[in-house]
Each structure stands twice: as C-alpha cells, then as structure tokens.
Amino acid sequence: MVTEMNGAESLVQTLLACGVDTCFANPGTSEMHFVAALDRVAGMRCVLGLFEGVVTGAADGYSRLSGKPAATLLHLGPGLANGLANLHNARRAGSPVVNIVGEHASFHLRYDAPLTSDIEGVARPMSHWVRTSRDAASVAQDGADAVAAARAAPGQIATLILPADTAWNPARAIGRPPLVDPPRKVDDSVVAESARLLRRGAGTLLLLGGDALTEENLRAAGAIAAHSGADLMATTYMRNMARGAGRVSIPRLPYPVAQALPALAPYRTIILVGAPPPVSFFGYPESPSELHPPGCTLHRMVATGEDAGDALARLIDRLGADPSAARLQAPERPAAPRGPITPDGIAQALAAALPENAIVVDEAITTGRGFYAAMAGAAPHSWLSNLGGSIGFGPPVGTGAAVAAPDRKVFCLEGDGSFMYTPQSLWTQARENLDVTTIVFANRSYNILKHELAMVGAGNPGRNALDMLELDRPDLDIAGLARAMGVPARKATTLEELNQALENAVASSGPKLIEVML
After folding, report:
1. CA 343, CA 348: separation in Å to the nearest integer?
2. Considering the entire predicted model, what is its pTM?
3. What does the alpha-carbon distance between residue 500 and residue 492 come to, in Å, rounded to a whole number?
4. Number of domains in the chain
5. Are both 388 and 505 inside the same structural domain?
6. Contact by Cβ (8 Å): 250, 328
7. How sure is the predictor about 450, in pLDDT bands with cuts at 50, 70 and 90?
8. Which domain holds residue 142?
9. Which member of 142, 217, 249, 509 lies 3.0 to 4.6 Å from 376 by CB, making a disulfide possible if both were Cys?
C-alpha cells in the first residue's frame, strides 16, 4: 500500500477499497496524475477507449453484468460532454457509474484557458450526484461518497470533478468505504392491493421491468400468473433480462404505437412491477401518448429503487400460489436457415447458433424488431437493450459486458447507422481481446427514421429529405473499417454465409465482426 501519497493516489486506493476495480478511460493533461497513480497503486484495471461515448457506454455494460459500479476517467468539460449520450442511457437503465472528470488546477481557472467550462453544469443533467473536490485532503472521502451515491438503488450516475492540483498535492488518508442501503421494501398495503386486483379475474396484466426481469423474479411472476390467470409482459427495453430455454418467456410491449395499443387494449388493470407507466417513445399527431386503454387501472406495485424480488415473493404468499408453478420455455433451436438474407432468416440463424449463457446486446432497431420473439426458445442467454434511446449504445455496452463477464460470449446486434456512432469500440475490443461478435445489418439507411417521418405526418419525402435518411454515396465498408481497427471481419450475403460466420464466432474466441448485407 502507498503510505505517502498525493490526491490521485488516495482516490485510486479509495475506489479499490469501495469495490471499484475497473476504470474505462480517455484521459488528458488534467488527469495525468490519476494515470500515474495506476502504476503506483496496484489493483485497478484501466481500459482505454478512443472516444468518450465508448468509455461511458462500456461502464454501463460493465455495471449491467457485474452488478457494481465501474469508474470512468474523462478529460474536462468537453470530454464529459462527448460521453453524455451514453450516460443518459446508463441513467435510464439504473446502471451505477462513477465518473472522474479532470479539471484545470484551481489557480488556473481564473485565466479562462481554452478548455475551461462549467463542468458541474455539463454534468448535472445526466448525473444524480455531482461534486468538485476542494483540496487534496478532501479527494478520498469525495471518492467514497461518489461510490455510495452510484450504488444507491437502483444504480445512479455520480460525477466527481478533480482539479489537477487536488490530484498532485499531498494527501494523508483514503476515504471510508460506503455503507449502502439495500433496496427499499414495498409497503404491505401495496402488495395487498396487488393481490386484491389479481383476484378480480381476467383482464389483468403484470408489466415487468428493471430487476423484475431476472431469472428468479420472472419465475416468481410466472407463478403468480399461473395462479391468478393474469398475463405477463415485459417493457419494450430492458436492462438485463434472463431469456431462453428453461426460463419464463414473456412478450414485450411493442415499440410501434399501432401495435402497442392493441397489445394493451384487453386489460382493465395493469400492475407495474419495476416498470414505468406505458407511454409511446414519441408524441405523434392525433395519437395518444399513454398506451393503456381508457378506464384501465394502473397500480404501481414496485417502483424504481424498490425490491422487486421481495415484493413478488410476498405476493405469492398472500395469494397462496405455488412458487414452482411457473411455465418454463421449452427449447426451440431451429435448423440453420438457407437462402437469401431476410430479417426472419437472420433471427432463425441467431436462434440456431446462440451458445448457452451468451449475452445479447440489442441495437438492431428496425431489422431486429422480430428477433426477440424468434429467439425465445434459444439457449439460455441475457438480453440487454437501450432504455434511453440514444443510439451508439450497442458496441460500447457489449465491450463493457465482455470486460465484466470474460467467460461469456457477447453478441452485439447493430444497425449500420447506430454502429457508426461508436465504431471505436472495436479498437478497444481488439486491444483487450474481448470475446465480442458484432453483427451489423447493412441496409445503408436510417430505416427507423423513415418510419418516424411517416408517423409524424411530415409529408412525402423528396430528395433532400431522403438524403438525411440514407447512408450511401459512398456506401460504408463496415467490414473494412473493423479490419482497420484490428478486428477480423467478413461480409454475409446469404444465410449460408451468415450461418458459417456465426459458427466460427461460437467456435473461436476474440472479437469479430459480421456485416450482413441487406
């Protein structure tokens, strides 16, 4: 252990003492003492990202799989600003993240040097907790407080701003590891009301999200459904859902409003278990924002930060349900498909090839809209998707997931437009030799935006409008881009070629990319 230390070394020691041992980083001059501290204090794994959106997205993916915070190291206000989109996604997912953001030395701020900015102002919209260390003696406890804030249920974004002189000046101690409160228990009256609503009979839905989508909690919900006759549905997007053969399989709420409205129309009662009230992703002319039918009762049984597992277990007891009565998904591994590339054929190929215990990161958007249902009976796997909606989520989250779970294969399902927001993730995957297979669906357009253009009633698009929605002139060579960053890549123009590429990905380790030509 370091006995004589500076503020940066005291912070690294504090993070380690608090259980934070992984840092995704894109540092600059103001962070050099923290970088140097990584050599003087053993135990911190630091992973370099070539863009801050990769760094913050990787911290999100790491936290979803490990269940604990990752740290990020970012350079001043502009570096933090570059990472905000994926911090927004992490915040929506309830992922705990500790951002360490360098700042100019305190004596230098009054000179308004080019990189000076209001870092606290940049941080606040995407952070639950923000603090600037006032001196080197404060840094360690500030770090411990940041970890405590990040670990508050269900998981929060904490941003600690570190002026350069607080990092290089002497410090004497490390911070006290935080005492973290467990998730709040749901009040008995709320569980009792849920039981009363379930006893009313047909027309009741349990809408599940957040931690209600773990394997154990899905089994509990399945037992409740088997006893009461209620239906189960997942939110459209999920932080980390247990899926596949041997698990409780449930549909998810469709994204398109035209599909979501009839999906919820049969229900007069919706019990929210870790899920928000169902609303459309955007507002459209002459279309409702609330997706539940008029007159439907919404009852929030488990709110954000509350213990879903405990509430479901108590509901089982109150109903007198059999905890083992949940209906489990039978294995349904299809034969490898043949012929031309189609979305249904891709889904079948993925379901056939997916190995047991894989991690699927879903940012396939339009091409992949049917993948979720088609892969219900595949080998047991985890399903991660984007709760915040800011694209460029998939490659960084897959990177962080692979760092957190090196014994599991990661499959990142990507649209070509969203992939181009954070392609630098591939370089980090190559450098760290991460077992991530990125599958990019190359339709050479922002197809989702063509759908949205029609939904908002903006009229028939002309050439200028379509130019904003198509990825051509020139066409992207995504496989070539991957190879340039050290990731082996191939193109698939038929389902047979896709099957072969997936078979190779399952049989070998390390990063790979498959560009599926649509």
Report:
1. 9
2. 0.95
3. 9
4. 3
5. yes
6. no
7. low
8. 5-171
9. 249
